[in-house]
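User: Hand in any protein.

Assistant:
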Amino acid sequence: MKAGKVVKSLGMAAVALTLVSACMVGSTLAKYTSEVTGNGTAVVAKWAPTFNGIAGTDGQSFEVNLSDSTITDNTKLATGKIAPGTKGSFAIEVGQGGSEVAFDYTVAISAITNMPKNLKFYSAEKCEPSDELNFDSVSGICQLASGNVKVGGTVEPTTVYWKWAADGSDADDTADGVKAAADASFTITCTATQIDLAPAPAA
């Protein structure tokens, strides 16, 4: 009789424990939950500086021909040639191209090949000695222009003047004339670099 009561008590305890466990599990599964997602977007600023209408990303280049000089009388000088006494100019136009960031730019001449020794480049039309654009003795580079362009801004074209003075060394001029069959050339390198957007450190 006592054994039956013990079994009955254990059974009731087991049922009670099961109900308590079920209530605990039920309360865990029934708690409130919410989930919200968001979408992130960004619009990349356009980068499209141009030099003489050519973008630096399309692999093209522009041409500058010094033979387009101020001498128009082809009875004195063959068309499309330069010689002592000729001079001229060419322009470099820096364009924003719709760029949406400000940028610094430089324009330089390098890789001079077979150019007449007495032909010089100048920053002003009068071609005075003080206006001469000099080549670095180490790098061989001559900087023609530099500056910066703001978003929505414009830059005046840079005009570079050149002159082959007739009062230079006759020996040098003659040597350049003798080797005239060799093509004279130089490279103009135009570089645009985005301006650093980080704020300047406080003084």
Remarks:
- The mean pLDDT is 84.
- The chain has one domain: 50-194.
- Residues 50-194 form one domain.
